[in-house]
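Contributing new complexes? Match this layout with flavin-adenine dinucleotide.
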Amino acid sequence: MSDLLQHLRQAVGAEHVLEGDRLEPYSHDATFMEAAPLAAVLPGSTEEVAAVVRACAAAAVPIVARGAGTSLVGGSVPLDRAVVLGLERIRHCEVDAPNTCAVVGAGLITGELQEAAAEHGLMYPPDPASVGMSSIGGNVACNSGGMCCVKYGVTSDYVIGMTVVLADGRVLKLGGKTRKRASGYRLIQLFVGSEGTLGIVTEVTVKLIPLPRHHATAMVGFNSIEEAAAAVSRLLGSGHFPAAIEIIDRSSLDLTRELLPPGFDPELAAVLIVEQDGNDPQQVHQNLLQIVEVLDGVDNRIAQTEAERDGLWRARREFGKVLMAMPSNFFAEDVAVPIASIPEMARRVHQLSLETGVKISIFGHAGDGNLHPTILFTDEQRPLVGKLAARIFRDAIALGGSISAEHGLGALKRDFAEEEHGPLAMGVMRDLKRLFDPQGLLNPHKVFPEQPADDRFLDKQPGWGVKREGAVRDRSELGA
Ligand SMILES: Cc1cc2nc3c(=O)[nH]c(=O)nc-3n(C[C@H](O)[C@H](O)[C@H](O)COP(=O)(O)OP(=O)(O)OC[C@H]3O[C@@H](n4cnc5c(N)ncnc54)[C@H](O)[C@@H]3O)c2cc1C
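Output block (do not edit by hand):
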């Protein structure tokens, strides 16, 4: 152990090897989960990352890559007394406008990439609600999505180059600034979404697109969550693809009531927030009016000013902060179903809440079929949560969907992976894991099932259900 620490200090400088009290922020993510790391190491370059990985591999000590620690699945929690490898010092950002791409360090906060691209009239579209605090490396590792992904796609659609440190410390460079490439296997895509289990991403090259100059936003109300969900499927099926289409149900609206626009009808059962973008303001506005007509809700608000636009988005953007500040605890789901199945998925979750008396808020990126049913529970209701969560996972799978649209599996959802993918696909994934990480040192106990996928799957996770302050380093910065 002291030998390893000595090697780590040599690799990154003693001031960048954290121990003792300074480890607390690296012991948890944005969930209830918590585990003490052996040490936290903050390398400043790919070469230093490689040296850290080599030292840990030689000592057979596990390594957990960490961006900003906003994972909602226990992904960045260091199980097995791992060394946390924090990428936060590797945050360079070079926007290459003539090549419409950017080369960025894995620790760069994604919002900073968006701002840098916007200075050139360009846009990096994937926009998780945590965009102001999560890192691009974390987004790549989880294949993050967000509000605008219905029109623009998710993280994997934008990564064209990558530098990865492999489990034995070798440095693999993939792709580059070329937007098209059909030579060889698409290894980049293997690392996207691999949640730190196949390699440590130190740098990515991402495609950029022109930044739309105008936005128009509407909030459309409905008398039931099923009607709102059906309207989404009707809209997309009619050939309209807005830049964003978010759904918020009554119980989520109740939690954010003071953030809703003035005069908001408190009886509405659900709303859709829909945004259109483009370069011609009249056309953008006209398209939005057509969209609102197709949605056919019972209450339409169309923002006339930037301030009104912000007002329509506020409740949705702040939802994560509201959840984190609540006295009760929550378990956030992240299911996705085919677009036409959104009404059925919403109906089943709503029914489950009515049957059990446990509050389940539904909000999410409806245009992608991605709902975040969030189980809000008291201490007495805690034993029920595993059962409810498992039922929601299975409903999503039964409807042809996924148990995770954008948050990943981490430790919290791993046990249901085989139910979604089947034994053959999981076997191939295990083979790949063995190929890239024969010692099993990269982010252990994540992604792959380890215990029965039953109602008690949460019970063995450290800290399960205990509401803790400070789950992320600065909650006040959370936007959702
Ligand atoms: C309020 C709130 C709102 C959110 N909204 C969204 C949303 O709209 N959409 C969405 O997709 N997610 C959302 N998330 C989840 C979270 O922000 C994303 O999963 C994000 O991508 C995590 O980034 P991070 O830098 O915090 O990664 P971390 O939490 O540090 O790590 C996440 C995972 O990635 C791995 N990892 C991190 N960096 C690297 C690297 N450089 N190389 C290899 N592996 C790495 C870790 O080992 C871990 O498995 C939200 C979270 C919060 C708290």
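Reviewers usually confirm one structural detail per submission. For this one: The chain has a mean pLDDT of 94.
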